[in-house]
């Protein structure tokens, strides 16, 4: 493909790389941040949760805004916001400043990531060209997270503030390149009914309440009434959103898109698969650091093998999709993940790294098989004017999945009393999630058409 087409793809992939590396670096640095600023346990937890709340709460709105207000405009504008507030986090002296910075950074990611994904799906022709681009996108996401674990450990040694400043430098480089490479688009035509303000407000409110309720699940039975109230209020507001959309002349979300079985199956699969992955990674990190006493850098290097998906996603996965089709490759990824997590269930207090290695390797391979094809399935066959919406739905699913996975394993760990028994109880959660995802995915295998990705198909139009 042309140099410009490759350059555009790399810039857009840079966004998901930035998002992945940002989350992973902070996950490693939080204990040091807490100690340096004297934060309470609750405040330190909200440093992580605020980002998830902002991201999950506004992703659906962000995806649709890209369709209605312009993908390039949303991508560039919110990339600037991400850059500014990431820098603000680096200068924070108090917990509330850090929480605010992370919340707004999450909101920025909620708008710019679906915009970047929808630019890919509208700039590359549906079929082999778009599939290859999306698989590269998926591999970049995995690479960002894996590299973030290691770089987070290294930067924390230099000073935790560099965990915030490094994304600023990367975001600035992406912004400069994007100004030149992201194509301009016609100004979106405003529909006769105007902007669906009621839909926007109820959607954002429902997603925020549901995200807050999910994040609170990690507290288990402590203050369970608050958790239940947040989830109930979120579901109620979601019902109001549906009622508003049915009556709106120009709805924010065309509800008919949710009747597309492949899209709905892909979004549910992504929620369960990503949730299981982040839940397992969270438990493994705690096991290595708290029970085994490994340093943050030793833990990051141990988990680095899971980053093999960054290599396999754009190389092996396209060949498998070409031969077996999306649905079968996705199902293979789920089944492999079930085996992978199950192998870790009998984890002991003094397991060698050799005993852990098969699970870590198989987890990376499973991610390479499932994540990219799920991205293809979640955007395939959707009209161009709704690509932002489809991207927003998919990204919302992955963000809620990560929140559910981490909250569920934390709750299971606490309810089991902590210690080794707590880790083993928590590890059951990822197994259950991917097993359920495999069942959902299996319903789409029979009769599912193949998505051809010829071996020599490298020409991409942009």
TrEMBL record:
Stretches assigned to the Major facilitator superfamily (MFS) profile domain: 8-449
Highest taxon, organism lineage: Bacteria
Record-linked InterPro entries: MFS (IPR011701), MFS_dom (IPR020846), MFS_trans_sf (IPR036259), Sugar_transporter_CS (IPR005829)
TM helices/strands, residue ranges: 45-63, 75-93, 99-121, 133-156, 162-182, 194-212, 224-244, 264-288, 300-317, 329-347, 353-372, 393-416, 422-442
Signal peptide: none
UniProt-annotated location(s): Cell membrane
Membrane topology: Multi-pass membrane protein
Keywords: Antibiotic resistance, Cell membrane, Membrane, Transmembrane, Transmembrane helix, Transport
A Pfam cross-reference name: MFS_1
Protein name, per record: MFS transporter
Organism this protein belongs to: Streptomyces litmocidini
């Amino acid at each position: 493909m042309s140099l410009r087409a490759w350059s555009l793809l790399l810039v857009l992939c840079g966004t998901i790389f930035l998002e992945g590396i940002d989350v992973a670096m902070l996950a490693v640095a939080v204990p040091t941040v807490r100690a340096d600023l004297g934060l309470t346990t609750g405040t330190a937890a909200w440093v992580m949760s605020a980002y998830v709340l902002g991201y999950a709460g506004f992703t659906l709105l962000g995806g649709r805004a890209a369709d209605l207000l312009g993908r390039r405009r949303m991508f560039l504008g919110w990339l600037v916001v991400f850059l500014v507030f990431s820098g603000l986090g680096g200068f924070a002296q108090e917990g509330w400043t850090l929480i605010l910075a992370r919340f707004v950074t999450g909101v920025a990611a909620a708008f710019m990531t679906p915009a970047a994904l929808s630019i890919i799906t509208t700039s590359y022709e549906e079929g082999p060209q778009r599939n290859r681009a999306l698989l590269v996108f998926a591999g970049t996401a995995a690479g960002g997270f894996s590299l973030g674990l290691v770089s987070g450990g290294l930067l924390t040694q230099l000073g935790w503030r560099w965990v915030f400043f490094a994304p600023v430098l990367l975001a600035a480089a992406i912004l400069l390149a994007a100004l030149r490479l992201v194509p301009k688009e016609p100004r979106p035509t405003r529909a006769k009914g105007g902007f669906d303000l009621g839909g926007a407000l109820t959607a954002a409110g429902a997603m925020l309440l549901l995200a807050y309720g999910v994040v609170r699940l990690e507290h288990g039975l402590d203050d369970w009434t608050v958790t239940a109230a947040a989830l109930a209020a979120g579901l109620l507001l979601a019902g109001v959103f549906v009622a508003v959309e049915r009556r709106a002349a120009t709805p924010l979300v065309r509800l008919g898109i949710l009747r597309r079985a492949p899209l709905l199956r892909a979004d549910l699969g992504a929620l369960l698969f990503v949730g299981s992955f982040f839940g397992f990674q969270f438990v493994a990190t705690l096991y290595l650091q708290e029970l085994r006493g490994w340093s943050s850098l030793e833990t990051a290097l141990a988990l680095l093998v899971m980053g093999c998906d960054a290599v396999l996603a754009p190389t092996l996965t396209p060949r498998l999709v070409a031969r077996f089709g999306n649905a079968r490759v996705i199902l293979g990824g789920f089944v492999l993940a079930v085996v992978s997590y199950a192998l870790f269930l009998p984890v002991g207090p003094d397991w060698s790294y050799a005993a852990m290695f098969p699970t870590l390797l198989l987890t990376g391979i499973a991610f390479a098989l499932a994540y990219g094809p799920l991205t293809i399935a979640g955007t395939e066959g959707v009209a161009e004017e709704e690509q932002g919406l489809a991207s927003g739905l998919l990204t919302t699913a992955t963000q809620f999945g990560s929140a559910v996975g981490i909250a569920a394993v934390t709750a299971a760990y606490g309810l089991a009393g902590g210690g080794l028994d707590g880790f083993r109880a928590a590890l059951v959660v990822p197994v259950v999630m991917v097993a359920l995802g495999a069942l959902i995915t299996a319903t789409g295998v029979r009769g599912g058409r193949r998505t051809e990705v010829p071996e020599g198909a490298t020409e991409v139009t942009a």
